[in-house]
Amino acid sequence: MTSKLDLTAxxxxxxxxxxxxxxxxxxxxxxxxxxxxxxxxxxxxxxAAHIVATQDWHPDGHxxxxxxxxxxxxxxxxxxxxxxxxxxxxxxxxxSAGAAFHPELQIDAAHMIVRKGFRSAxxxxxxxxxxxxxxxxxxxxxxxxxxxxxxxxxxxxxxxxVAYSALDAARLGYxxxxxxxxxxxxxxxxxxxAAAQQMSAAGITLHQTLL
Length: 211
Fold this sequence. Notes:
4 helices; Rossmann fold; alpha/beta
């Protein structure tokens, strides 16, 4: 889908997902070419009426870290109270350089920053809900108060935090658009193809070109 969206419209918000050092080359959970999202996102920032960014913000010893579980390795999966949880390398630890936004991202333009994953026992992929699907981040209320009905998503990683955010947004009734050239994926065991199928099935528009 290549139709134009008007980022300047009052009912439209740009949602920038986790463009942080640990998800970029050299980081603890680097997404291949993750830094390549920065330039296209900055371009969209220049015209967006509403800009929200999310920031992974884990305490030391977070339950999603493989190091928190004896004998487990990164990318193992375990059963937790809210379902299956992938275990990750320690990443985006609160206050660390890895948790900081990419230095070239024009983050000062953001009107709101949503920090997620700061509760030690619950991981949080989505910008709207933690992984228990009941604990809210407050983003939905913020957007509602500004009469935003359309969301344009970009960032890292397409098949995890971008997809989870997009799917939750669609369930909440937003008109959701994901700009794929401004995203990069982890693609763990076919996760990108699965995420694309889920998003398309949910009525989310996947843009193959920049807006």
